[in-house]
Each structure stands twice: as C-alpha cells, then as structure tokens.
C-alpha cells in the first residue's frame, strides 16, 4: 500500500484538467478558497511550465465565465488572478530549489508592494483620496448593499442592528476599511502562500520521490522569527495602548497593523511548535487533523502566543522523550 502511494502518478491529460478544475472549484468556495493555488502549483511542478500555464489559462477562462454570467460580479475572477499568480510563484520557488522561507517572504513582500503601488497609481490618476475612492466603490455597489441589508433585516442575528447602522453610514465603512484592510491584506497573502507551500512540499515529496529536493515541509514548521522583531512588536503595542497620547491621528491604527503583520509570522512559528507537540504526544491521523483545525479556528491566539514566547523558552526542548536504558 505504501509503495503504491509513493509511486510517481501517471501524468495524464485528464489529471491535468482535473487540477485546473479543482482550483476553480476551491476558489468558488468560502473557507477552502485559501487552498486554491495548490492544484495550480502541482500542475506546474508535475507537468512543466507550459502545460501548467495552459491549465491556469483554462482556470482563468472558467472563473471569468462564472463571474460574468452566473454571479454578475467579477470579484471571483479578480481573486482567481491572485490564485493564478500565487500558484505559479510557489511552483517556481520549488522547481528552482529556492529556500521556501526566503522565497515566500520575498515574493509575499514584493506582491504586496506592487499591489500597493498599483493601487496608489489608480488613486492618483483619479485625483481622489483613499477614503474618497472607497466611497466611490461603495456607491457603485449600492444595489448589492441594499440587497444585503434586506437579508440582514430578515435575520435574527444578535448584532444585526449594529450591522444595519453601519451599512447606513458609508463614511464609517470607508474609514473602517481604510484602517483594517492593510493588515488583513498582509495576513491573507502570507496565510495563502504558507499553507499552499506546505501542501506542495508535502505532496511533492510523496509524488516525486525520484527527484532530489533539499527542502520539505519541515523547513516551514521549523520557521523562527528573528528575535529583533520583538522590539517592533513592542512598538506596535505601545502605539495601540498610548497612541492617543502621542497625538498622531493614526497611531492606534499603525500599532494594530504592526501587530497583525508580525502576528502572522509568530503564528507560523507557533504552528510548528504545536505540530511538534502533537507528534511528541503521539497524536496522528484523522484525530490530529481535527485538533489542528479546531485550534486554528478557535484558539489561534494561543498559537501566536506560543510562537512569540518561544523566543525566550524554546518549547521544543521539552518535547524530547527520555532514552530508556537497557
């Protein structure tokens, strides 16, 4: 059974098309959309850049068709463009033998920088401020917002009144988006990159055992944030707590953004510690997957805390089982 799993799969055209289709299906889902770049990255690694590119173009065509003719909204297509870029970037990092950590950080920061520059160019070309641009987009989406308000009015959620009050104030929505989007964008980019790289490294080691590759998923699990970034985190906390006393209007916003951006890296470090803890306790298989999913969605802050305090306590040294002397 194990020998069959480790055999290189037959690289048929149907498998290639299935990888492209699965990326679109994942993209159309909600929670699982974060894994959409994985099939595309595998397609490039297993079949080469040319066939991988054709698969990606097929996915772009399908996503555009669904977005334009079924949903009447190009948001899905825009998201799949990012999926397309991420999938190829991850495949290039792997096929070129680049360190996964170095490749992800370099590409992630570069992607965010280019996105920010492009957004800034659009704002400047229209002679608008960021808040004015967001208000303009909200005005264009007024029909959909009205539909959303009707659905909320019919719901029985406890916070429905607060949500309706917020939807009636586009200026507050624009302010909230302007303050929160940079941090969430940063986290979203690196979460997608890290988890898909993890899946690719784990799958590639199983599917292509005949090819030597110097890195595996353990390189991601052993990720450690340089100790010096603790100082930057402390600056963020100071801005959040005493930002108003400083007098700068956006001190608190800048502080929260710093915490979010660094928090995602401490999450990766803590996730590796958590994975080693489960291995040390002998928890494997399906039950391990359930625990991991539950902790990620319900107690992610504990993983972040573990990653942060690992700088002082080195938790992994406690995960060594004592040797039994004969």
Summarize the topology.
Layout: H1 2-6, H2 13-28, H3 37-47, H4 49-70, H5 75-95, H6 100-125, H7 130-140, H8 142-154, H9 160-167, H10 170-207, H11 217-221, H12 229-246, H13 251-280, H14 285-298, H15 300-313
Helix pairs in contact: 2-3, 2-4, 2-5, 3-4, 3-5, 3-10, 4-5, 5-6, 5-10, 6-10, 7-10, 8-9, 10-13, 12-13, 13-15, 14-15
Given as residue ranges, the uncertain stretches (5+ residues, pLDDT < 50) are: 1-8
End-to-end Cα distance, whole Å, is: 34 Å
**Mean pLDDT value:** 85
Main sheet overview: none
How many β-strand runs? 0
Rg over alpha carbons: 22 Å
The portion of residues assigned to helices is: over 70%
Count up the helices: 15
Strand content: under 5%
How would you describe the overall organization of this protein?
Residues 1-8 have low confidence and may be disordered. The chain has helices at 2-6, 13-28, 37-47, 49-70, 75-95, 100-125, 130-140, 142-154, 160-167, 170-207, 217-221, 229-246, 251-280, 285-298, 300-313. Helix content is 77%, strand content 0%. It is built from 15 helices and no strands. It is mostly helical and 326 residues long. It is globular.
Tags for this model:
326 residues; globular; disordered N terminus; mainly alpha
């Amino acid at each position: 059974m194990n020998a069959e799993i480790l055999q290189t799969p037959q690289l048929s055209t149907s498998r290639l098309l299935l990888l492209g289709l699965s990326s679109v299906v994942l993209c159309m889902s909600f929670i699982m959309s974060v894994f959409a770049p994985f099939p595309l990255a595998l397609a490039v690694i297993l079949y080469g850049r040319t066939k991988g590119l054709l698969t990606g173009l097929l996915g772009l065509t399908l996503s555009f068709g669904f977005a334009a003719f079924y949903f009447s909204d190009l948001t899905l297509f825009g998201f799949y463009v990012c999926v397309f870029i991420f999938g190829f970037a991850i495949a290039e990092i792997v096929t070129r033998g680049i360190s996964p950590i170095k490749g992800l950080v370099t590409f992630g920061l570069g992607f965010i920088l280019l996105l920010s520059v492009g957004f800034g160019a659009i704002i400047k070309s229209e002679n608008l401020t960021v808040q004015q641009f967001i208000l303009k987009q909200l005005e264009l989406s007024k029909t959909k917002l009205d539909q959303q308000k009707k659905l909320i009015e019919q719901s029985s959620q406890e916070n429905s009144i607060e949500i309706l009050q917020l939807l009636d104030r586009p200026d507050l929505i624009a302010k909230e988006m302007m303050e929160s989007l940079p941090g969430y964008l940063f986290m979203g980019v690196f979460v997608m990159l890290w988890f898909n790289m993890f899946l690719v490294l784990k799958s590639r080691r199983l599917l292509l055992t005949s090819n030597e590759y110097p890195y595996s998923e353990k390189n991601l699990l052993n990720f450690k944030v340089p100790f010096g970034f603790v100082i930057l985190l402390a600056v963020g906390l100071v801005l959040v707590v005493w930002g108003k006393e400083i007098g700068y209007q956006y001190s608190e916003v800048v502080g929260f953004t710093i915490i979010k951006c660094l928090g995602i890296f401490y999450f990766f470090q803590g996730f590796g510690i958590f994975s080693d803890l489960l291995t040390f306790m002998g928890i494997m298989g399906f039950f391990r997957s359930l625990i991991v999913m539950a902790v990620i969605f319900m107690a992610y802050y504990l993983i972040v805390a573990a990653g942060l305090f690992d700088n002082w306590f080195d938790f992994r040294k406690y995960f060594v089982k004592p040797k039994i002397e004969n």
